[in-house]
UniProtKB/TrEMBL annotation:
This is Sugar kinase. It comes from Haloarcula onubensis. GO terms for molecular function: kinase activity. Signal peptide: none annotated. It comes from the Archaea. Keywords: Kinase, Transferase. The keyword Acetylation does not apply.
Length: 318
């Protein structure tokens, strides 16, 4: 099957106690899956884009648990299986003011860290409309840094649009390490998504969101730059034109995965033929919906997204 969107990266098991319960006293843990690239694929698939997720997993009940949930939401997993590797996981204790949320990762030596291009379905990337990965992936191991570069180059050579989200994680590497790795990949990136704070901290750039977008586009020849600004929304730059997209107000149940929902919504609509302005509106509405639900996944429908847009006065024909 030829997919509209192909993503590549790690998906972990997410384990968390009920809200208000501390990990050290918990007697039960909710059991979900979570990973930036599969989150994006799931959001896009639920919004109409045929999606494939590439990864490497242990051939075990835990690895199969991951693929079962990804498949349940309409994404086709294409997996390199490993008989001896382990499944990455993370534990999250959700906070409430003044206690912050705590995340503990247990992902060392996970199967994904040894994934090489020859193990993965590169033909799916060549045939796709868009290939997406994030800055989490090359941070996980030197092998994955090489594999990420290879897959982006493979996509670029085939004429597949490449999308890359910085997704900086301070628990994985330093800003200087991340900057070197990111900039080594930028030549093969068409669409860059970056949080404003990461552009300041990691790419060491100053200025407004528009200044940042224009500077990055000029220096690295990106087709599109999207600078996300949390509660202030996002700014997109394409063909020299700027689109300023406010965030939609929402009650937050679980904020984790909001950025992935945004990217999934954006890519789904760009693949469907929308312009950057309409795709950004769709992305912002998808992100708002994600914040209302538990877990990392944007379990949304097009009708729900479009109701938010209609309420906001946006008339986007489908």
């Amino acid at each position: 099957m030829t997919a509209d969107l192909v993503t590549f990266g790690e998906t972990m098991l997410r384990l968390n106690p009920p809200a208000g319960t501390r990990l050290e006293t918990a007697t039960t843990l909710e059991f979900r899956t979570a990973g930036a690239e599969s989150n994006v694929a799931i959001a896009a698939a639920r919004l109409g884009a045929s999606s494939v997720w590439l990864s490497k997993l242990p051939d075990s009940p835990l690895g199969r648990r991951v693929t079962n949930e990804v498949r349940e939401h309409g994404v086709e997993p294409r997996i390199a299986w490993d008989d001896d590797a382990r499944q990455g996981a993370y534990y999250i204790e959700r906070g409430a003011d003044p206690r912050p949320t705590t995340v503990i990762y247990d992902r060392a030596d996970a199967a994904i860290t040894t994934a090489r291009p020859a193990e993965l379905d590169r033909d799916a990337i060549r045939d796709a409309a868009v290939f997406y990965t994030s800055g989490i992936t090359p941070a996980l191991s030197p092998t994955l840094a090489e594999t990420t570069a290879d897959l982006l180059a493979t996509a670029r050579a085939a004429g597949t649009t490449t999308a890359f989200d910085l997704n900086y994680r301070s628990k994985l590497w330093s800003p200087s390490e991340a900057r070197r790795a990111y900039e080594s990949l930028f030549a093969d990136v068409d669409v860059l998504v970056a949080a404003e704070r990461d552009v300041h901290q990691v790419l060491d750039r100053e200025g407004t969101a528009e200044d940042l977008a224009r500077g990055l586009a000029a220096d690295f020849d990106f087709e599109t730059v999207i600078v996300t600004r949390g509660d202030e929304g996002a700014l997109g730059l394409a063909d020299g034109a700027v689109v300023d997209q406010p965030a939609f107000e929402t009650d937050t149940v679980d904020a984790i995965g909001t950025g992935d929902a945004f990217v999934g919504g954006y890519l789904a609509r760009r693949i469907a033929g929308d312009g950057v302005d309409d795709a950004l509106s769709y992305a912002a509405a998808t992100a708002a919906l994600k914040r209302t639900m538990e877990g990392d996944l944007a379990v949304v429908t097009p009708a729900e997204v479009e109701r938010i847009l209609e309420r906001d006065g946006r008339d986007i024909a489908r």
